[in-house]
Amino acid sequence: MMDSDEHREDRLRQMTCQLGQMLRPDGDTTLFMGDTCATVAVYGPGEVKMNKELLDKATVEVVYRSKSGLPGCAEKMIERLICNTYQTAILTQLHPRSSVSLTIQEIQNSGSFLACCINASCLALLDASVSMKFLVAAVSCIIDNDGNIVLDPNRKQEKTARSSLTFVFDNKDKKIVTINAKGDYRIEELNRCLALCKEASVAIFDFYRESMKKKLSKSMNTLKGDPES
Amino acid sequence: MVDHVNELVLPGEILTKFNESEKTQKALLGPGLRQEDGDIIVSKPGILKFREPNVYWVDSFQKRYIPTKSDTVIGIVTAKAGDIFRVDIGGSDQATLSFLAFEGATKRNRPDVKVGDLVYAKLLVANKDMEPELVCIDSGGKNDGLGVIGREGGFMINTSINLVRKLLSAECELFKTLGKNLQFEVAVGVNGRIWVKSRSVSQTIAVVNAIEASEFMTNAQIKTMCKKLADTLAGF
């Protein structure tokens, strides 16, 4: 697939998702952000391996699978980043000695891939109804050589960027949960990126709401259609 | 009154304006709602429900079972270990079932339970910090319908927990309507497992299909479906 995404500087690409397509996992989603796509399956709270068991909270496990090849350092980095993010977001203390496991499959990387993985994970956790303190939304942006900021960049824009940043926000206080940055940038540039991404994260939270509404619409309709309940 | 009753709520949302009971000035919070620093925060995605006068909870759609005390569940015996059986009930931990927790069982007279059997049992202990424990008797020592099931055939299916809750609610007329035309035996476990046994394999399949199809149906739709099903089985 080519990077057919339009060049937009101040907006996120179109998002679509499918929830609950798989039979075995407790929750799953396939999320498209433009052409970038990832599938996430959630299992949990389930049984945990003896050596990973924590006495006072649930273990969050993240497995990242790329399209081909063995997992290397970059893949482990993504796993660690997402794991740390969701350890804060999930109410792990509710399920001690169990595990919440996320399996992320790369489908198509057309830029802002980390953000797509994090958002897809959040949707999958919502699909599985795992208890969470708050929802998280990730937004990527780049700073190009002229100092312009591009939100949700595609692969081409990402390659020519001077630096690329990914921010993760929570929906409760709109505070930062995670930052991942690459390249060099000035403090005022960081602040500008942060402000832009924070603004854009609202659209992602709205998207979560719409997706869940669609999922629950079936049961909500039976509620309304049934005068006895 | 909270503004969000019967609407979708997502984790992290702060709810206000709860109906309090006049006597105690308190509101009761059920699953999916948490108190944090004086705020009431949603922790599960779902539909906020309210019952007079002051009870609130979130009705969420979930596949994974989380053990709760006094739930009746269908488990699969996975191991025999000394004087207990290990039973898979679909939760994060395997449950234990003492061999003395059957009707008429004594130290000498062991119940006939094998690995791979289905047991219909009640949760005696369900606690996030402890292993769940099952029993197949009530406090009077009677089995009350509990015990090993499925020795003479039958079929177990896994469904969502919401479907089970719907089937068990007083309003749902699926089994009542189905039972008019079909004879079958059914055990519904709150852990999302349903066991069905009927006269023939085709009838069992019909019942199972009816159960699975009824998840998002209203009572009127269920009645129409059951009628169609009975007609088809009779050969029309």
From TrEMBL, chain A:
InterPro entries membership: ExoRNase_PH_dom1, ExoRNase_PH_dom2, ExoRNase_PH_dom2_sf, PNPase/RNase_PH_dom_sf, Ribosomal_Su5_D2-typ_SF, RNase_PH
Keywords (A to Z) from UniProt: Exosome, Nucleus, rRNA processing
Coiled coil: none
Pfam families noted in UniProt: RNase_PH, RNase_PH_C
Major localization listed first in the record, in broad terms: nucleus
Record-linked SUPFAM superfamilies: Ribonuclease PH domain 2-like, Ribosomal protein S5 domain 2-like
A GO MF term: RNA binding
Family: Belongs to the RNase PH family.
Protein name in the entry: Exosome complex component RRP46
Native organism: Pinctada imbricata
Automatic annotation (TrEMBL), chain B:
GO molecular function, one term: RNA binding
Segments forming a coiled coil: none
Family, similarity comment: Belongs to the RRP40 family.
CDD domains (alphabetical): KH-I_Rrp40, S1_Rrp40
Organism: Pinctada imbricata
Pfam families reported for this sequence: KH_6 (PF15985), Rrp40_N (PF18311), RRP40_S1 (PF21262)
Annotated GO biological process: CUT catabolic process; exonucleolytic trimming to generate mature 3'-end of 5.8S rRNA from tricistronic rRNA transcript (SSU-rRNA, 5.8S rRNA, LSU-rRNA); nuclear polyadenylation-dependent rRNA catabolic process; poly(A)-dependent snoRNA 3'-end processing; regulation of gene expression; TRAMP-dependent tRNA surveillance pathway; U4 snRNA 3'-end processing
Name of the protein in its database record: Exosome complex component RRP40
SUPFAM superfamilies the UniProt entry points to: Eukaryotic type KH-domain (KH-domain type I), Nucleic acid-binding proteins, Ribosomal L27 protein-like
Keyword Nucleus found: yes
